[in-house]
Structures are given as structure tokens and as C-alpha cells.
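Record 1 of the preview.
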Amino acid sequence: MSNHIDFYFDIISPYAYIAHKKILKHKNIIFNYKPIYLGGLHKLAGIESPAFNKYKLRNNINDCNLVSEKNNIKFKWNSNFPINSLNIMRGYICIGKDKQNDYLNCFFDAYWKDNHDLSNDDNISKLISNLKIDSKVFFESIKKQSVKDQLIKLTTDAFENEVFGTPTFIVNNKIFWGQDRLEYALEEFSAN
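->
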């Protein structure tokens, strides 16, 4: 039986943002945050992102607005969606565990609440500076092969565990996909 819930995420996913906000309300449960590169995962799984289908995209926008409103989560569909999240996800890996929570909150909010363009390195630099992270070191670190390899491995491992999108929760080797499945993952965890 598991003593935690694995949470697979990418900052580019609005549903991962909503799930993250819901997770913050469960302080007595350990969530193991598993960063992945959603674009790479979709490629491995042969899935086309809803971002590239105008009908699915329109539904996603409406659905995210509805779900965030129902859950009292501040949310604004980002006008720059979709962006390539590769450097942001590499950044989460390389900044060190002590800064990861602040980094995640900052970048999720910047993209899905404050409508920042996170494809712009100057905007990333400002956010990094606000977190007291050296911008020069950050941009050098995300280019290191070891960091690139780690994100590739995390994404490949997720695919091999049959994760095909974000957010995904895994508890007791059971997969729960989607922000609306968090409650099911919590029930499975509570049954331990």
C-alpha cells in the first residue's frame, strides 16, 4: 500500500494547474510531484494535443473556466497558449528541492492566473529573480545534458507506467487521469 500519491504534471496543462490548487487543500497527504514534458509524452503515446483541435480547445477553455469557478480557483485562460514548456519543466528539476514548491506555485500562477507569456525568457528571468534564484545559473542549468536527460527519463518512465496526459495520479499502482479524478485517488489512498 502506498504512503503517498504520485502526481504527474506539466505547467502547460490548465487541468494540472487546477489539480495542483486542489492538492494544496490536502496538507495531511503526501503528494509526490512528478514533472514531465507533456509534448514529449503525447509524442510517445501518439496523441494530438487538444490545443491543436479548435473544437476540443474551445471546450477545454469553457470547461476550465467552469471547473475553476466551481472550485473557487482564480483562473484565466492564457492568451499565449500553447507554449513550449520544456525549459520551465527543466527548471523545476534543476532548481533544487527546497525551491520547487515556490517555483511551481509561481509559474502555475503566472501562466494560468496572471496571463504571463512564459515563452519569453525576460518574463521567466523576472519570475526567477522574485524567487531569489540566480537567473544566469538557471539558464545555464536548464541547458545541461544531465537535466535534459532527467526530464526525458521522467517522461519516458511516465509513459511506461501508462500515463498519457496530465494531470495523472497514481496510488496503489492504480491510475487516475484528470483533475476530476483527484477525489477517486484520495479515496484509494484513504483505503490503505
